[in-house]
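Recall the central idea of this unit: under ordinary conditions, the amino acid sequence of a chain determines the structure it adopts. In this exercise we apply that idea directly, starting from the sequence alone.
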Amino acid sequence: MDRSIRVVMLGTGDFAVPTFEALCDTPAFHVVGLVTQPDRPQGRKQELIPSRIKRSAEGRGVPVLQPENVNTPEAVAEIRALAPDFLVTAAYGQILSADLLQVPAVAAINLHGSVLPAYRGAAPVARAIERGETESGVTVIHMTPRIDAGGMLKIARTPIGPDETAGELEDRLAALGAPLVVETVRELLAGTSQPIPQARAKVTKAPKLRKEDGLIDWSKPAGAVHNLVRAMQPWPAAYSYLYGNRGPEGEPVRVIVHQTRVVEAAGGHAPGAIIEAEKDRLVVAAGQGAVQLLTVQVPGKKAMPAVEFIRGNAHLLIDRSFLPDHPGRA
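Accordingly, the structure predicted from this sequence is:
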């Protein structure tokens, strides 16, 4: 190569960090800018905390751009001024316009956290686990103005562990995808990469997670409850309401469920009924089978093993049942 290949990375979430760092560490590439979302208030103090990828860029001396809307003429012009050969996106958080996608001299590509065309959208890892998939992977695609619809350039697959959480799987997929992006850039430069169109008939969606997605439906089979708990880690976390104790305002207590296990149990229990609450065994009936709660959390407390929860919260277990939802909720 006569010169370094100029790359602009667009990414915000932790999923993008390994790809960004792999591009920075490839001698033939020059990452001339990182485009990332503006810092957002976080935590109880609502402090502006920079993302991991922004901190990595600053540590490496890579210029950082944080437009509120990346598709404005001003933002597009700023990126064009960097004269990129490639735009590379991963977990960025905004849809790129046709004007922006025309900026790079060679191509705009995206690393997506599923084997497309399955699970297009904002939450492919969580939705795959929620639906009980046993395999996942990553796909590098040509970017188009349609979400995750471009031709496929590279695919890598990996099994999903039976107890693996969305956070754990996403970390593995991020590491799996980083070298794949580097390979794709090299093959596009060499003219040896041929995109494969996605089969429209096989498209499935992975909509953005909402806090209410974590509500446990105990009428579902135990396996589905276990999958939901795994899928909602680390955010928004699965939860339910204990019927027995009510707080100062008469509200049922919200219990966050961090870790579970599917167990065998005698039938005849209503979904949500606490079958066992002794020693380290906190077992709840599901529509089919039962779920052992291993790690839980109540308001104002840290996450704790079931044995600590049972020992310190006997007053919460009086009626030995979880609500299907918060009473009075529309």
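Residues 5-202 form a domain with the Rossmann fold fold (CATH 3.40.50.170).
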